[in-house]
Write a structure and sequence with these properties.
8 helices, mainly alpha, single chain, about 170 residues
C-alpha cells in the first residue's frame, strides 16, 4: 500500500505544481503508474551506483533529474516544500492551499471525489495541507517536530483514491 500512496503523493504534487504554474510547473511529462514505478526504481538503483563512483557529480545530476520527475520528497522534504511555497507566494498564492475544500476541489477529479466519503476528503486535505504547513515552521525545530508528529500518523489512515488510468491532471 505504501508504494501506491507514494504514487498518490506524486499525482497530487504534480497536479498542485501544474495548478500553480510558472516556476513550479513540472518540467517532465505526467507519469502513469508503471512509468512512475520504473523511474522510482531507476532513481533507487542510480543513487546506489553514485555512492560507488569516484566522480559522482554526473550521477547526482541524473538522480536529481529523476527526483524532479517523480516529485520525490515534495510533501515530506521540508526544503522542497518551503521552496514550493516561496515560489507559490511569489506568483500570488494558490486558492487550493487556502482551505481543505479548495484543496479537494482543485486537486481531485470528480471521480476521485465521488469515491471518497466526506471524512476521507477531510483526512486527505488535512494530511497534505498539514505537511505543507508544518514545513513552513521548519526553522523552529520544536514546532516542526510537534506539527509533523500530529500529521504523520494520518498517513496510515489515508485512502488510496487515485485511479492510475485516470490520474492525469485534474
Amino acid at each position: 500500500m505504501e508504494h501506491l500512496l507514494e504514487y498518490q503523493d506524486y499525482v497530487l504534487a504534480y497536479r498542485l505544481r501544474a495548478l500553480v504554474g510558472g516556476r513550479t510547473r513540472p518540467q517532465t511529462p505526467y507519469l502513469s503508474l508503471p512509468e512512475y514505478a520504473r523511474k522510482r526504481l531507476e532513481r533507487q538503483a542510480l543513487a546506489r551506483e553514485v555512492l560507488k563512483e569516484r566522480d559522482y557529480r554526473e550521477g547526482l545530476r541524473r538522480v536529481e533529474a529523476l527526483t524532479e520527475a517523480i516529485n520525490f520528497g515534495f510533501w515530506h522534504n521540508p526544503g522542497e516544500s518551503i521552496e514550493f511555497l516561496r515560489r507559490t507566494i511569489e506568483q500570488g498564492g494558490c486558492s487550493a492551499l487556502e482551505s481543505p475544500e479548495n484543496f479537494i476541489a482543485a486537486l481531485l477529479t470528480r471521480r476521485e471525489q465521488a469515491a471518497l466519503s466526506d471524512a476521507e476528503k477531510r483526512l486527505v486535505a488535512t494530511y497534505y495541507l498539514g505537511l505543507l504547513r508544518s514545513s513552513a515552521s521548519y526553522l523552529d525545530a520544536e514546532v516542526f517536530t510537534r506539527l509533523r508528529g500530529e500529521i504523520e500518523p494520518l498517513r496510515a489512515q489515508l485512502p488510496f483514491f487515485v485511479l492510475p488510468e485516470a490520474a492525469r491532471v485534474a
